[in-house]
Every structure is written in C-alpha cells, then in structure tokens.
Write a structure and sequence with these properties.
Blueprint lengths: L13 H16 L6 E5 L14 E4 L5 H11 L4 E7 H7 L1 H10 L4 E6 L34 H8 L3 E6 L3 H13 L4 E6 L11 H7 E3 L10 H8 L5 E8 L5 H8 L16 H6 L2
Parallel strand pairs: 1-2, 1-3, 3-4, 4-6, 5-6, 7-8
Antiparallel strand pairs: 5-8
C-alpha cells in the first residue's frame, strides 16, 4: 500500500500515525487497490493520497466530499474514502458535510482533527476550544467549538466514531468497521499538532480521553449516543452511533435499473462540441 512518495510533515505530527493506520486497515480489509479511491481536499493530512498505493484525488479546499460522492454514484462498487482536516471538512467544506450526512451515501470520511489550521500556519479552526489563541485570534476564540459528532448523529450519518491518532490498534478497528459499514461513516480523529497547537498535546489527550467500550456504551441507542457526544469534561473515543438504513447510492441504482453509470457505453458519444466551446 506504500508509494515512492515520502511525507514531509513536522516531526511528531499525528498525520504519520493516521497514515500508517489507514494503510494497515486497507490491508486487513483486503481491498483491491485498483478498486479503491482516496479523496482529499487541501491541508497537511490531505496529502495522504500521495502516500497510499490506490487511486487518489486531491481536490480543492473543502470540496473532497462532492468529488467522493460523484465517484461513488458513478461506480457504487468502488471503495471510497475521504481524508481531510477539521478546517477542510468542517469549516471550508461544512455545507457539503451537512448534505452528505442526510444522504447517507456509502463512503467513509476520516477527519484528522487537530483543532487548528496547520498548513496555513496555525489559525483557529471550527474545533478550536473557546479561548484558544492563534494567529487569527490573538485575544482568544470567542465562539464555542463545533460538535461534529452530535451534528453527524442528528444529521443522518449511520456510523459515527471518534479515535485517537496515537492509539493505532483502537483506531484501526474503527476505520475497518467504518469501511465495512454500508452507509455514511464519520471517523473523527483526535491528533496532536506539535507545531501550532500547544494545548491539545499527547499528554493532554492522555488525561482527557477514555474508551466507550470500557463503559459498555450502547451504540444503537440514539439518546445514549447523543449524550456521549455532548461530553466535554472528558473526551470519549470509540463507536458512538450505528444503524442500518438505505444508502443514497443503493436507491439511485434501483431507479436506474441496477445499472451503474460506469458501465454505460459512451464509445459513440461526441464531445467535440464541448472541447471546441472551451478552446
């Protein structure tokens, strides 16, 4: 699953651990690399498609989800994974995130959540804590941080989980189960940014997080899932919510006589007019 490209992330960045875990998850799943697509936007971790030997598409900032949806609708048999940061996925791409949730399309969204914009030198992100000081908020963040898990659960996602980059065994299971799940899977990942976020460090996470499995959380109980997603004093990781529901791509395929767009015969389609128009 490895390419010839090497990451250039800062030493100690959580992206290294997430990259390794994604690779291990794909190997465990035994997916065919030629039938797997990783889509990303713009950001430090969004370079991940360069380092995994599958098909990859690095799109515009905040626009990974529309590309992933288009690929999945054209070829429902494709394994589609989105990798983005909290600023990319929840901020710039927040509108796409909302509508992907309610469609329950069968893709897996992995969010590398370091609560800061790393690539653009440390600005506040949608998940930065209130009071967080950065280049863009030198006096501290005024607004409350976004709660992506609660939003995903209420918005229509059918697999909602959160992992921690440094716990690769636990995180791998969440990614594997998320990719196996038929429906929209969100896996939000706590990770450290040693360069620009001096608050959410590895020591801080060790003191804050605990595993839902240890408390025998019922991930099929909506009220329990919402309650856990609203915990702020402690930071639960694990599977919050899971349910079975029809996916958007399944319903679209049933309306198209079961034939995927990728199998349509386009050998006699004349696109010369389109090329001439944009010359």
């Amino acid at each position: 699953m490895t390419t010839k490209q090497a990451p250039t992330w800062c030493p100690g960045c959580g992206d290294f651990f997430i990259l390794s875990t994604v690779k291990n998850a794909l190997v465990e799943l035994g997916v065919e690399k030629e039938n797997t697509l990783i889509v990303s936007g713009i950001g430090c971790g969004s370079k991940l498609p360069h380092f995994v030997n599958t098909y990859g598409f690095e799109g515009l900032h905040g626009r990974a989800l529309p590309v992933a949806m288009g690929a999945k609708l054209a070829n429902p048999d494709l394994n589609v994974v989105v990798v983005c940061g909290d600023g990319d996925g929840y901020g710039i791409g927040g509108n796409h995130f909302l509508h992907t949730l309610r469609r329950n399309i069968d893709i897996t969204m992995i969010v590398e959540n370091n609560a800061v914009y790393g690539l653009t030198k440390g600005q506040t992100s949608p998940t930065s804590a209130k009071g967080f000081k950065s280049n863009s908020t030198p006096q501290g963040v005024i607004e409350e941080p976004m709660n992506p898990l609660a939003l995903a659960i209420t918005g229509g996602a059918t697999y909602v989980a959160r992992g921690y980059a440094m716990d690769i065994i636990h995180l791998k299971k969440l990614i594997v189960d998320g990719m196996k799940h038929k429906g929209f899977s969100l896996i939000d990942i706590f990770q450290q940014c040693p360069t620009y976020n001096k608050i959410n460090t590895t020591d801080w996470y060790k003191q804050q997080i605990y595993k839902l499995e240890d408390e025998k959380h019922d991930s099929t109980n909506f009220e329990a899932a919402m309650k856990k997603s609203m915990e702020f004093e402690r930071k639960p990781i694990g599977l919050f919510w899971k349910k079975d529901a029809p996916t958007y791509d399944q319903e679209q395929r049933s309306r198209n006589d079961g034939k995927a767009l990728v199998h349509e015969d386009i050998s006699d389609v004349d696109i010369s007019m389109m090329f001439n128009r944009f010359r």
